[in-house]
Amino acid sequence: MALHPNFPDSPYETLLPEVRWFPAAEELRSTAYEKLLPPLVAKVREEVHDWRDAGYAGASATSRALLAWWFDTDHLIEQADGTLTQFRYYFAQREAVESVIWLHDVKKARDAVMHRTYENTNAPVRVYWFDDRIEITNPGGPFGTVTAENFGRPGFNDYRNPNLATVLKTLGFVQRFGFGIADARKALAENGNPPLEFQVEPTTVLATLRRAP
């Protein structure tokens, strides 16, 4: 097992995606990295790194405020002897928080959290990252007035988890109800991506976002 030659000594220092722990000899990094670590890990690290450098573009106002408070604000903690010491998050902690917010705010995984079923299943929301697409599989098929036939059509929306939806909207993570799919389609079109695809089954919904040509 190897550490990159440029791996920092401080646990607080920002790590570049390519400067990471690798579960094999360093000389195998360039040829075996994708085989020894899940491809999703490296891709998420790269995307989150670029997102951080871009000033968290696409994050909600609430998320931006929290990120600034956690990572750009000095935090002093009083010790037993009355002295104050500075508290900082380790970079691994920071990156974990950023990754969750990036998936939620930027990659729109929040809709899966809000609309999934929490009854009679412990299946997680699954996000698969491929070279040419992202797939999000959500437990829970159509609900209420929504059917496989009208899924995604304007004017057809219902809420399996109304209390959760209200909390997410109150906290600023959801801007408006009933526009999630329309907003996603608009964003993909503006970026030049192919149309958003859905595979609707009785117990799951698969959303596929394909890479722009």
Number of strands: 6
- Give the fraction of residues assigned to helices: 25-40%
- Give unreliable regions as ranges: none
Q: What is the subunit arrangement here?
A: single chain
Helix and strand composition category: alpha+beta
| Number of helical elements | 7
Question: What percentage of amino acids are in beta strands?
Answer: 5-15%
- Give the end-to-end Cα distance, rounded to a whole number of Å: 38 Å
Biggest pleated sheet = 4 strands, antiparallel
Query: Mean pLDDT score, rounded?
Result: 84
Rg from alpha-carbon coordinates = 20 Å
**Strand order across the largest sheet:** 3-4-6-5
Task: Name the overall outline.
Answer: globular
Question: What series of H and E elements makes up the topology?
Answer: HHHEEHHEEHHEE
What does it look like?
- The two termini are 38 Å apart.
- The strands form 2 sheets. A 4-stranded antiparallel beta sheet has the order 3-4-6-5. A two-stranded antiparallel ribbon has the order 1-2.
- Helices cover 36% and strands 14% of the residues.
- The chain is globular, with a radius of gyration of 20 Å.
- The model has no long low-confidence stretch (mean pLDDT 84).
- Strand 3 and strand 4 form a beta hairpin.
- The protein contains 7 helices and 6 strands.
- Helix 2 packs across helix 4.
- The protein has 213 residues and is α+β, with helices and mostly antiparallel strands.
- The relative contact order is 0.11.
